[in-house]
Design a protein that fits this description.
This protein is mainly beta. It is built from 1 helix and 9 strands. The protein is globular.
Length: 110
């Protein structure tokens, strides 16, 4: 199991929430928004409508099916909404480092 680094979410009103980081390590800032989808986190992360925002996934387990490589056919992404990640951060209740999906080639944290 990968070492987990402590992280904090500090809101404009001074509220502080602590947790653990996976993936990117560093500071960022953005508007916190919610996504209530039960699946499709690679699509949400790459959706241009979330540009610059910190996305909170309300589904309790994220990462369990990993992430596939981008696959563009005729200029249209097949597994993602666009060719890159647009969010500034992702907040989840429970992150699964172990993934299992026939099309995945890396974990969400990778």
């Amino acid at each position: 199991m990968k070492h987990q680094q402590k992280a904090k979410l500090v809101l404009e009103d001074g509220s502080v929430f602590t947790g653990y980081s996976f993936g990117y390590s560093g500071n960022t800032a953005g508007e916190v928004v919610f996504n209530t989808a039960m699946h499709g986190y690679p699509e949400s992360l790459t959706d241009p409508s979330y540009f610059g925002q910190i996305l909170v996934a309300t589904f309790p387990l994220i990462g369990n099916y990993g992430v596939s490589e981008p696959n563009s056919v005729g200029g249209i992404e097949q597994n993602w909404e666009s060719s890159r990640v647009h969010i500034k951060g992702l907040i989840v209740s429970e992150y699964s480092q172990n993934y299992s999906h026939w099309n995945a080639n890396k974990s969400l944290g990778q």
